[in-house]
Design goal:
- With 271 residues, the protein is mainly α.
- It starts with a helix and ends in a 14-residue tail after the last helix.
- The chain is built from 13 helices and no strands.
- Helix 3 crosses helix 13 (235-257).
- 27% of the residues are buried.
Length: 271
């Protein structure tokens, strides 16, 4: 009985920690400046909704172009990352390419802080003319997500028994046919989970977007951060921008729940 009570207490605490910030964002997005800074506890929940923040956000700031920049860099970066990591992880899992050293070197790129790589990348990108470009920012995102995606997919590929592929070879299947018709369908859930993780990371990334973009490729996260000024904090605009920006990540998280599946090798025979 005590364990059950503790379980529900912890569950309610976690739900409170997760839901309250989201609730505050969406409530603040529809508040006027007066209601936002009001100290009356009643006005925190009961207030007259207004679209003032959204009108200012869409009319006075390049919100939609910046949101489009975020979508372009995140989606294309995820596609490129998965295309490279999928083949790399399959190579590591089936042929132990590099004898384990290459896999360690690939994963190790994720171990050092991003700030360490910022200065050399900035100088290199400046020489190549890649600053404030979609392509340059996408390259950075691919570089820092490829190791994570490769390592995650490597584990999923290892769960697929080699005997399944060997049986397909006996039936006359080529290596590409085996990968396309047998292995790929089995790791689809893992591929979906990895893709969503990478997409969420790229969508929410701020550090590189702030350093490597100015106007042309500026992401929506950088725009929202500009509402926090030295003399004034525009909570309404920040909340309005955040309310729209987090929707894709919330949908992606919901989509990911459907694909966290145990036992990717149902129907396969393990020796």
């Amino acid at each position: 009985m005590i364990k059950k009570i503790l379980f529900w207490l912890v569950t309610l605490l976690v739900l409170f920690i997760v839901i309250v910030p989201l609730l505050w964002i969406y409530l603040t997005a529809f508040k006027s400046q007066t209601d936002i800074f009001s100290t009356n506890l009643r006005s925190m929940v009961i207030f007259k909704p207004t679209l003032q923040n959204f009108r200012a956000l869409f009319g006075d700031y390049p919100f939609w172009p910046n949101l489009l920049n975020t979508a372009i860099v995140s989606v294309l970066g995820t596609v490129v990352t998965m295309a490279v990591s999928l083949l790399a992880a399959y190579s590591f899992a089936r042929w132990n390419t590099g004898g384990g050293d290459l896999l360690f070197m690939t994963v190790s790129t994720r171990m050092f802080p991003m700030a360490v790589a910022a200065i050399p990348h900035f100088i290199f990108f400046k020489i190549l003319g890649l600053l404030d470009t979609h392509f340059g920012l996408m390259l950075l995102y691919v570089f820092f997500n490829m190791s994570f995606a490769t390592f995650l997919l490597y584990g999923f590929f290892n769960e697929v028994p080699k005997e399944v592929e060997q049986a397909a070879m006996i039936d006359g299947y080529g290596r590409m046919e085996i990968f396309r018709k047998i292995v790929f369908p089995l790791i689809k859930p893992g591929l979906a989970v990895t893709s969503v993780f990478c997409l969420i990371w790229m969508w929410n990334e701020f550090f590189f977007a702030f350093l490597f973009t100015r106007s042309q490729a500026r992401t929506v996260n950088v725009l929202i951060s500009s509402f926090w000024g030295g003399l004034q904090v525009q909570y309404g605009l920040m909340a309005g921008g955040a309310a729209i920006t987090i929707m894709p990540t919330l949908l992606a998280a919901w989509f990911m729940q459907r694909y966290i599946i145990r036992g990717l090798t149902f129907g396969a025979v393990k020796g």
